[in-house]
Design goal:
globular, mainly beta, single chain, Beta-galactosidase, Chain A, domain 5, seven-stranded antiparallel β-sheet, 329 residues
Length: 329
């Protein structure tokens, strides 16, 4: 197993869905996306939340992970058919909490990342709710964690809220943890996010060609070949975007956190690649949970066509403006 070593000022204001300026990408031609009607359905272990042209699929048999986030039928996530490491998942942070001192700290707790989740009946609001089995942390004797994921449609914003509730179900142990969302995307895309405080840092063995650059007020990673695992750490501004080769803009946002609130050895934004896929990662604030307490963290997911003629390149003012507009919707 590879070792994953660790070294919102977003505002959600509902507005009308973004219309394309001219033809749009993402398989939609000149069609602007619609986000109604809304439906939630279950087929075997897969639950699907559909908002008009927008769709999210989650798999309760594989860690309740998001396996599809698509617009006009185009998925923005790496699928299981493409790579054994796929979709979007959740881990407790810091990574060092997973293992005893000197351990490799890999893989993440199976009950949260890849185990089977229990699904609640879909309610009248079309919310999908999945709950993991309990898992201990190797570093905390007597610890027990349970994770709930609730997927909430917001058609007025063209968005889906993913609400993570990490609960300390232990009767005796206190833990200090932060939330961590990890999404796998293709290597031929463009990642960017708002610039926070301090410099970007890298794991010591990152490929020399692996670099996050500045432009148009944001930080950018234009995917390029690497020869081995590489990872960057940065403070952000409560959002993270991915421009895909299909000219779709995937954007997630959360309550921004300051560097002092981040778990040891981690960062608000982390970008990892091994040459086969890219992981775009977001983290929330480190929180101490006494027995019976929980940590709630909401991440809002949006997906928009990139207008025809808009530049898709690191430092693109067009993409920076689109991200700003999408955040305000």
């Amino acid at each position: 197993m590879r070792q994953r070593r660790a070294f919102a000022r977003a505002s959600w204001v509902p507005t009308l869905a973004l219309a394309c300026a001219g033809a749009c990408g993402g398989g939609g031609g000149a069609k602007a996306p619609t986000y109604t009607p809304v439906s939630a359905t279950t087929d075997g272990t897969l639950s699907t939340l559909q908002l008009g042209d927008l769709k999210m699929v989650v798999d309760e048999s594989r860690g309740g992970r998001i396996t599809e986030f698509s617009l006009f039928g185009t998925n923005t996530l790496v699928t299981r058919d493409q790579n054994g490491t796929y979709g979007s998942t959740y881990w407790p942070s810091p990574q060092s909490s997973w293992c005893a001192a000197g351990g490799a700290c890999w893989p993440p707790p199976a009950a949260l990342d890849s185990g089977t989740y229990a699904a609640d009946p879909i309610n009248a609001s079309n919310n999908i709710s999945l709950t993991s089995g309990p898992t201990p942390l190797d570093t905390v004797a007597g610890s027990a964690l349970v994770l709930n994921k609730t997927f909430v449609p917001l058609p007025e914003s063209g968005a889906i809220n993913v609400v993570y509730q990490l609960s300390n179900s232990s009767t005796s142990a206190t833990v200090s943890l932060a939330p961590w969302q990890i999404s796998r995307v293709a290597t031929n895309g463009l990642t960017f996010f708002g610039q926070g405080a301090g410099p970007v840092t890298y794991t010591s063995d990152s490929d020399p060609t692996f670099a996050v650059t500045e432009g148009a007020g944001d930080l950018w990673y234009a995917s390029a070949p690497v020869t081995h695992d590489s990872k960057a750490f940065a403070d952000g501004a409560g959002w993270l975007a991915q421009a895909t080769p299909d000219r779709l803009l995937s954007l997630v946002s959360w309550t921004d956190v300051m560097p002092a609130q981040i778990a040891p050895g981690e960062a608000e934004i982390e970008v990892f690649t091994n040459g086969d896929y890219v992981e775009i990662e977001a983290q929330g604030a480190l929180t101490t949970l006494a027995p019976g307490q929980g940590l709630t963290w909401a991440v809002q997911w949006k997906l928009r066509p990139i207008p025809a003629g808009a530049s898709v390149a690191a430092g693109s003012a067009d993409l920076a403006a689109l991200a700003t507009t999408t955040l305000a919707e």
